[in-house]
Each structure stands twice: as structure tokens, then as C-alpha cells.
Specification:
Keywords: Metal-binding, Zinc, Zinc-finger. The protein is α/β, with parallel strands linked by helices. It is 47% helix and 6% strand. It has four domains: 58 residues, no CATH class; 130 residues, no CATH class; 69 residues, no CATH class; 184 residues. It is built from 20 helices and eight strands. Helix 10 crosses helix 11 and helix 12 runs parallel beside helix 14. The radius of gyration is 37 Å and the shape is elongated.
């Protein structure tokens, strides 16, 4: 392609001006406008047509203009991007060139970004999401979906912005841009981003989403939110809903025909807009409170079902854990599992929900201490045993807390106490009196000495926190303030 001045080559004054429009590339590359060409033509008009050296000068001009044409042809296919990098677009077809030009000279806003097992996701403000992976880059915009073989304007822009963070200030070298949006002679952007996305996001003022924020992955958070709207715990939700984010999905690909819950679950996993909306509707503090309240309710139901079974032989119509029995060993295992789940979730949900966790644990401990008896005593059926076991072998208190005769292995369990250890004293102090009442009862019941010492230590820690003025409550669940403490309004 010739430069604009090349269109006047070999014109005589008597010839007409060609009506060819300025090439698009020349216009984009910032070539001189037609008015400059007119002034050049004016100077030619004032020259002597009959000069004896005209032919030689024409030959010299031909050489200069030819060289100038070649230089202009190269420059006309180059774009100086907003990052300061100059890109050669000569390897692109017209459609890709147009997309690249829009992306490299335009501006988009990144709402947030995050690392995924398959690469990096960038959510743009005008809805599209760009994914940069080790093999390819994709975008959810209509332009990319129509022609997925080449990069769209969002990919061109994003890759340029990211490269701009890693290259030195002086970028005099021109790089050739390929149709997939990757510039040659520059390191692969996904390699540069390894371990550096947070610093890049900070520099560019993009919100960085950490998948394991608050100790939970995004899939776990979505599962947690969904379970908050029903009676099940997150661990017991539909297995088929649980999936990872290893492969990006468009909203259309998230649709599961005939299954609204599965569709919404996938959308929450793969669409940041849906996920953020759900988090606003059901924040982490609310989810934590609901979770520990559910565990407390399920432990109460389980013990109530066990009492009824022992007294009447009646099996629960709606068991707490379908598939598990109501025999004494089943109940012991389920109660231990409840405590284990609370302990795990205390760490995963910190600093949210700790007050509710204390309530769930202390209430469960009170219930077990109150059951230091033979559950078959006085039963309507006159049963003497379940399966030949003696009284201690079906006594929940004896099985979960033990006695002075209990072996060291049972002592080491320290039912509930090891979970209370994970909670801050500021939240334990509210239950200090209840814990002291429990201590008095198990002293009478001759609990193992290590268990007594452990509980006594927890009580002193809780009472010390209150005495030192650290008795303020945490902010109310779901208020979004995770720093400091404030007294609860009475």
C-alpha cells in the first residue's frame, strides 16, 4: 500500500487529482492530512516545468518517494497502544486488525480478577469475562463467540495492559501482533502472571478476588449460600452441584434443563455478577450464624430421636442423617462428627459466627452431661439391652466424656473442649457460668482428671477475658465489619 503522497507520483500540472480516499491504516497511523498534500502541490506549481534538470530530479524523487512509500507502508500497519507498546498489525486480517485497533487504542474497566486452576479470569465492567489460560485466551463477548479463532478487542486490550506492567518504561522495540492476541518476542503473559496477579491488580487498581478468602473456596462459598436457604448443612447438599472452576462456562453453558437449582449453582460459580449478588444477599456473617445454628438444631434433634427410640422403640420418621442408624454407637459417631464440623468451620469462617459456635458447643456439652444414665431405664418395652451391651456401653456421657476408670485414649478426645479451644476468650466469657456449672456436675460424676483440668483452664481463660474488659461482642453477623469489637445493642 502506498503512502498518501505516493498517490501524486508522476503527476503533471495538467492531470486531474485522483479521487482515491485515504487508506484506513494510514489514517490510524497518524499520517498527514490532505491539506498538507495541497501545500506540497502548490510548491510544485511554482517550480519550472521546463527545467533542464527536471528528468534527473524526477528520478531522484522517484527513489526518495519509493523509499518513503516503503517506510509509510510499515508505519501504517503499526499502532501505539495506551500502554506505550508499539504493535505491528501487518500479520492480521482486516477483521482482526479492526478489533486490535479498537482494543489497543480504547479503554475498558476491569471489575475484578482472580486466579483459577486453569489460568486467570478478568471480569470487565461491560459484562464480558476474559480468561487467559496456558493454551488460549477466551472471552464471553459476542464478537469472540462469533469468531473464536481470533482475539476480540477485550483480549487485545487486556494482554496489552498486562504486558505494560512487566516491560520497562522505555519500549522502543516494535512487536508483531498475532491473530490470537499474543505479541511475538514478548514472554507469555500467563507465565509473567504466575504469583504476580495480586501485585498487578494493586498497580492497576483492579479488585483482586482470592478463591480461598476466609478459608473457603468459591465453590464452598456457593454451596454454603445455597444451604443457608434449606435445612441441610453444606456438607450434606447435593453432590452433583459441587463442581470446580477449572473450565470457564458462559451463562448459556450453565443452564441445566429442568433443574433451576443446578443452573443457579453453576451461574454462581462461573458468573461474578451472580456470585457477588448472592454474597450481598447472604453475607459470610449470616452464613456462619446459620451454619452453627443448624448444627445445634441437628444435635438436639438427634438426641431427642435417640431418647424416643430408647423409650418407645420408635424410629425417627425424618432422621437427622438419612442412612445412619439410631443405635447408641451411631449417635455417638454423629455427635462427634458434629463437633468436628464445628471445629473445622470455626477456622474456615473466622472471624464470623464464633458466638453461635460457642452456643452450639456448650449446649451440646450440657445435653450430654445431662444424660449420665442408662437410656433404657423405664422404657415402655421393658428392654434390658440393645445388643447385649451393659449400662456403661450405652451411656452417652460415659462414652463421650468418660470416667476416672476411662483409658487414656478416651481421655484424649476431650469431647467439645478441643473445639472450644479454637474460639477466642472474648466469645467464651459469655458462657463462663454455664461451663462452671458443667464442671461441678462432671466433678460429681467423677469425670477423668485430664478432662476436668482442661475444662477448668477454659473457664479461667474466659473469666480472665471478662475481668480484663475484653467482654465486648463481635459485630453483628453480616454487617461486613470484620475489624474491632462493638457492644451489642440491648
Amino acid at each position: 500500500m502506498s503512502a498518501p503522497t505516493g498517490q501524486f507520483h508522476r503527476l503533471s500540472i495538467g492531470q486531474n487529482m485522483p479521487e482515491t480516499a485515504l487508506p484506513a491504516r494510514a489514517a490510524r497511523a497518524g499520517r498527514s492530512d490532505p491539506s498538507d498534500e495541497d501545500s506540497d502541490r502548490g510548491e510544485d506549481d511554482s517550480s519550472s516545468v521546463g527545467s533542464s534538470s527536471g528528468e534527473e530530479e524526477d528520478e531522484d524523487d522517484d527513489d526518495e518517494e519509493s523509499s518513503h512509500d516503503e517506510q509509510s507502508e510499515s508505519n501504517s500497519a503499526s499502532v501505539l497502544a495506551t500502554s506505550g507498546i508499539t504493535y505491528d498489525l501487518s500479520q492480521l486480517d482486516s477483521e482482526s486488525e479492526a478489533r486490535a485497533f479498537v482494543g489497543l487504542t480504547g479503554r475498558f474497566d476491569v471489575v475484578n480478577c482472580r486466579s483459577t486452576p486453569a489460568g486467570y479470569d478478568f471480569q470487565l465492567s461491560d459484562r464480558p469475562q476474559v480468561h487467559i489460560g496456558p493454551d488460549s485466551s477466551t472471552c464471553t463477548c459476542a464478537a469472540f463467540q462469533d469468531q473464536p479463532d481470533g482475539a476480540c478487542q477485550h483480549i487485545f486490550w487486556l494482554v496489552d495492559q498486562l504486558h505494560g506492567c512487566f516491560l520497562p518504561a522505555s519500549r522502543s522495540t516494535e512487536v508483531t501482533l498475532t491473530p490470537n492476541g499474543r505479541p511475538d518476542r514478548l514472554p507469555r503473559i500467563e507465565d509473567l502472571l504466575k504469583g504476580n496477579l495480586l501485585s498487578v491488580a494493586t498497580r492497576l487498581k483492579w479488585q483482586y478476588l482470592q478463591d480461598e478468602e476466609d478459608g473457603m473456596t468459591r465453590t464452598e462459598k456457593v454451596r454454603d449460600i445455597f444451604s443457608a436457604f434449606n435445612r441441610t448443612l453444606p456438607e450434606d447438599t447435593r453432590r452433583d452441584l459441587t463442581e470446580t472452576t477449572e473450565q470457564a462456562r458462559t451463562p448459556e453453558e450453565c443452564v441445566v434443563q429442568g433443574d433451576f437449582e443446578a443452573t443457579m449453582f453453576r451461574l454462581a460459580i462461573h458468573d461474578d455478577g451472580v456470585f457477588n449478588s448472592l454474597c450481598k444477599a447472604m453475607p459470610s456473617g449470616a452464613c456462619a450464624a446459620i451454619y452453627f445454628d443448624k448444627v445445634q438444631e441437628q444435635s438436639r434433634r438427634l438426641l431427642s430421636d435417640f431418647d424416643r427410640y430408647c423409650a418407645t422403640g420408635e424410629f425417627p420418621a425424618n432422621p437427622v442423617s438419612p442412612g445412619l442408624g439410631i443405635e447408641v454407637n451411631d449417635v455417638v459417631a454423629q455427635l462427634q462428627r458434629f463437633v468436628s464440623r464445628i471445629e473445622v468451620n470455626i477456622a474456615a469462617r473466622a472471624p464470623h459466627g464464633s458466638e453461635r459456635a460457642v452456643e452450639a458447643l456448650v449446649s451440646l456439652l450440657e445435653s450430654v452431661v445431662a444424660r449420665n444414665n442408662d437410656p433404657l431405664e423405664g422404657n415402655a418395652l421393658g428392654r434390658q439391652t440393645f445388643h447385649g451391651e451393659d449400662e456403661d456401653q450405652r451411656n452417652l456421657y460415659h462414652l463421650l466424656i468418660g470416667s476416672v476408670e476411662t483409658d487414656s485414649e478416651t481421655d484424649a478426645r476431650h469431647f467439645v473442649l478441643h473445639a472450644l479451644d479454637a474460639l477466642p476468650p472474648v466469645d467464651l466469657h459469655q458462657s463462663a457460668n454455664r461451663l462452671r456449672d458443667i464442671l461441678r456436675k462432671i466433678e460429681v460424676n467423677r469425670a477423668p482428671k485430664p478432662y476436668l483440668l482442661h475444662l477448668g483452664s477454659l473457664i479461667r481463660t474466659a473469666e480472665s477475658a471478662a475481668a480484663m474488659g475484653f467482654g465486648q461482642k463481635r459485630p453483628a453477623a453480616g454487617n461486613g465489619n470484620s475489624g474491632g469489637y462493638s457492644k451489642r445493642t440491648r
